[in-house]
Amino acid sequence: MTINYPKKVTIIEVGPRDGLQNEKQFVPTEIKAKFIETLFDSGVTEMEITSFVSPKWVPQMKDASEIVRASNSILKKKIVLVPNEKGIELALEQKCNALAVFVGVSDTFNKRNINKTTKESLDELIPRIKRLKQMGIFLRACISTAFYCPFEGKIEKAKVIELCRAFVDAGIDELSVADTIGMANPIECYDLFKDLKFLFPNTLITAHFHDTRKMALANIFASLQAGVDRFDSSAGGLGGCPFAPGATGNVATEDVVYMLNQMGIETGIDLKRLLAAIDLITSEMDRPLESGQYKLHLQERLKQA
Ligand code: HMG
Ligand code: MG
Question: What InterPro entries does the annotation carry (predicted)?
Fold first, then answer.
């Protein structure tokens, strides 16, 4: 068997956004800011730090402006999520220069998540993307429910490609293609990502896996074979979309970093420092974390105590 893999992979840390958005108890802004700082210190180069969404819908993200201001001195790529025109305006007020829009392939999911059909979202966002590109803003499009939807079931590949094409034609820099409820299998991932890499050779293609059924590492391996070298992951395996029943945490960054390191693939992330960043955020959680690497880290600590 020939195993294809890149020498280097970029991890886009989504813990401060996808990881925390589903937490019921509000995490104080200064802890979030410290979490972001320590994650960047561990070697992360790109991160979703917050989202400009309605505080009524996602109360955990109500401090988005403060988070951006607190991270001002960090020069690496700080991405903020924006669902609509209002979110874009708020992000621009804070001088953000890397924005992520998010749209579901499934209409039903999109309606539950941002109260618009997929077409209504596109009609609002596409003309805006063109103007944002003229302003020199980095733009990422998160494509939700690219494999399965909790309401509509299996999603047709042609519909995913059609949605991706709309964003690519508008000039987007990156597509982050998501298995929102962690249902995809490695063959489906290989199949979709192989096509996306072929069809959109000039766009950054990133895979975003939730680990509901513990298939995320296998899906990452399959996506590497398809030529993907960018993965979203969340420190501690935190995360999930509040409007996608069944969406548990993202694949844990520490497990991805460990696997890639063992395979000789560079990530630039220091595992020990990453685990220290997770120590900081676990003090705010009322449950144990599920990731293999973090459990081992706790066992080591107990042995040394
Ligand atoms: P709506 O109720 O239809 O909004 O919600 P509206 O336009 O009717 O406005 C209602 C109120 O919200 C108004 O305020 C607006 O100003 C305000 P009021 O007059 O009542 O005081 N508003 C906003 N406030 C802050 N930021 C905004 C904004 N827009 C309107 N951007 C809305 C529509 C999109 C706002 C709402 O549905 C929402 O906030 N949804 C966010 C959902 C969300 O954050 N989901 C999680 C992120 S996506 C995800 O996790 C998936 C991903 O990880 C990939 C994957 O795994 O699939 C990316
Ligand atoms: Mg997600």
Answer: Aldolase_TIM, HMGL, PYR_CT
